[in-house]
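2024-03-11 09:14:02 INFO worker-7 job=invfold-0412 stage=load source=structure_tokens
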């Protein structure tokens, strides 16, 4: 690793339906975070567009090769001289479906890795609040880990947070950090956001970076905010609360090994015979 410490920032935005405005808002926060010393900047899920409904999303999604937001964020990373996680962008695929895709970009503007959200948020929360991501998005089928100057970053998105085996796989493959960009609903965020992110950090001995959407969006969709940075011991190092902005923390990579030495559960995994549903 090149140095044991660095500063990471997680952005918190209230994205709307205009991609240009959303890109500009995220870019301004990235500039502020870089000026404050951030060397790794992470954006939330749907950072460039919080549309509602399959028709609107597909109409505004763009192919990777000509994606407005991807081009802009690659240039921003290069101009700022930092590593940038793009949250997720809506990438148009062949056949009229969309990928909810993350990119990690280096300080030269080069793409280090891609990750398509694996788990689709198909839920009915009650009170008329319902989501069917699988009607619009094609799920990914591959976990992606990116090597940064300070260690390895495992990629995930929002609803993936509820599937701990994904993060266990990253930790067992050598991840030091986990990215969880999200647009968590206000309903589920109030109940589960903090505890799930702390649990993933504790279970894996990884730092968790969770940039977030906040506020009210198209179709009166409400997101929870509270962008978090969590230590490998499960401590909340920074919390973005409910307004747009960014949070930042100094990341000491040595604390990953410290946490895993204290509780070496990754070394204690054992194979077992799983139960069969009767």
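2024-03-11 09:14:09 INFO worker-7 stage=emit residues=278
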């Amino acid at each position: 690793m090149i140095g044991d410490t660095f500063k990471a920032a997680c952005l918190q935005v209230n994205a709307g339906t205009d991609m240009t405005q959303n890109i500009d808002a995220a870019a301004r926060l990235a500039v502020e975070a870089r000026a404050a010393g951030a060397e790794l900047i992470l954006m939330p899920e749907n950072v460039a567009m919080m549309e509602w409904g399959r028709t609107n999303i597909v109409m505004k999604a763009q192919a990777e090769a000509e994606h407005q937001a991807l081009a802009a964020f690659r240039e921003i990373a290069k101009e700022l001289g930092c590593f940038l996680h793009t949250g997720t962008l809506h990438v148009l695929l062949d056949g009229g479906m969309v990928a909810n895709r993350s990119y990690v970009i280096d300080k030269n503007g080069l793409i280090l890795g891609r990750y398509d959200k694996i788990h689709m948020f198909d839920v009915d929360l009650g009170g008329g609040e319902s989501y069917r991501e699988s009607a619009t998005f094609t799920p990914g089928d591959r976990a992606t880990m990116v090597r940064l100057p300070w260690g390895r970053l495992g990629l995930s998105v929002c609803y993936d947070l509820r599937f701990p085996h994904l993060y266990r796989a990253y930790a067992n493959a050598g991840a030091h950090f986990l990215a969880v960009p999200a647009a968590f609903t206000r309903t589920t965020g109030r109940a589960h956001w903090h505890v799930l992110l702390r649990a993933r950090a504790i279970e894996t001995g990884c730092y968790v970076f969770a940039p977030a959407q906040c506020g009210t969006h198209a179709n009166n969709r409400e997101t929870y905010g509270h962008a978090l940075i969590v230590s490998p011991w499960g401590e909340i190092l920074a919390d973005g609360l409910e307004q747009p902005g960014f949070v930042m923390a100094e990341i000491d990579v040595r604390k990953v090994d410290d946490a895993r030495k204290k509780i070496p559960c990754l070394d204690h995994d054992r194979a077992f015979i799983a139960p069969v549903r009767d």
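2024-03-11 09:14:09 INFO worker-7 stage=report msg="The chain has one domain: 5-265."
2024-03-11 09:14:10 INFO worker-7 job finished
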